[in-house]
């Protein structure tokens, strides 16, 4: 039976919408397939970007995102593409991300728009003196080569801003990176190493300067194709490079020709109206089913980044509780969502104890109506063993009473 109705406007069942969405996010592919560097490059281009985050309870966010799609992935492959082949670069989407270098031209508008906005914001945060450091920083890197923030600002006073307690030279480095004059050429530990953009980004990617209209078209079109269906607001927030008004105007211009209105059945049986390509029904029908295995997703996985969309499509309410005081947490500091086929079935609290070679599993919470049957727990244990091997642990250890009641 077709999961796409013939009503007008076109309506996609919840199952069809999930299937299409997961396919677009690379989660319907066979995760056991071999992965070359070229395959990895294609996967990241398909996703659009992979978020970078410093938290390393099991593995870095970008590594977990890629591993959940290809269990043969190894971090050294990503490092080679970033730091040797330079086919990827690091910059900002909604957050710090790894992005295909071929998309670099479309970051020019972001660089331009960021200049005055960042200056004004950081002045308001009482970061004084950073603007006077621009020429000094650029001259130092031009003469001496790549530098880290610890190489700069000797004797400078840090601003009182908690995590953002940058000294003026660090603030200048970040400003020059975010506005395109510097690029991140690598990381030591997790600290950025900066160099001149012309020494990091290939000239072919710097020579092409698309205008604002071309950039808006690329951003909205690319976001829609990666989401499968979306509102104008979701398109704007995907790269976080165009305004909501610009995305809304783009949609209005394309509606009726390149876009159609579609009704998506939500997980709770309601209807949500979105925009899609005219052939979205055929795309949904052709989308393959996600593998039945269980996979642990990074809290920063692009498939769940939009929490409202996640709840609409999957009926899964998720938030990361890193910034929630421990006594007020519902689950834990850094809890991983679990994907089984096309369902988000629960979440797991686990941590790599590298000194002991142990993947320590402290708690599992399955969603209401998801039973911890023998087959499901075996599939989960198989995934945990894959994660164990990926991060180099010797064994998985389960805490007493690790299977918890649904919250």
Summarize the helices and strands and which ones pair or pack.
Elements: E1 10-12, H1 14-24, H2 37-47, E2 50-51, H3 61-67, H4 75-83, E3 88-92, E4 96-100, H5 108-124, H6 134-144, H7 168-178, E5 182-188, E6 191-196, H8 197-200, H9 203-207, H10 212-227, H11 232-239, H12 244-254, E7 260-265, E8 271-276, H13 280-286, E9 294-296, H14 307-314, E10 335-340, E11 343-353, E12 358-366, H15 374-391, E13 395-398, E14 403-404
Parallel strand pairs: 1-7, 12-13, 12-14
Antiparallel strand pairs: 2-4, 3-4, 5-6, 7-8, 9-10, 10-11, 11-12
Structure description:
There is one protein chain. With 407 residues, the protein is of the alpha+beta class. The protein has 15 helices and 14 strands. The protein has helices spanning 14-24, 37-47, 61-67, 75-83, 108-124, 134-144, 168-178, 197-200, 203-207, 212-227, 232-239, 244-254, 280-286, 307-314, 374-391; strands at 10-12, 50-51, 88-92, 96-100, 182-188, 191-196, 260-265, 271-276, 294-296, 335-340, 343-353, 358-366, 395-398, 403-404. Strands 9, 10, 11, 12, 13 and 14 form a six-stranded mixed sheet that branches. It has a three-stranded mixed sheet with strand order 1-7-8. A hairpin with a 2-residue loop joins strand 5 and strand 6 (191-196). Helix 10 crosses helix 11. The chain is globular and about 65 Å long. It starts with 9 loop residues before the first strand and ends with a strand.
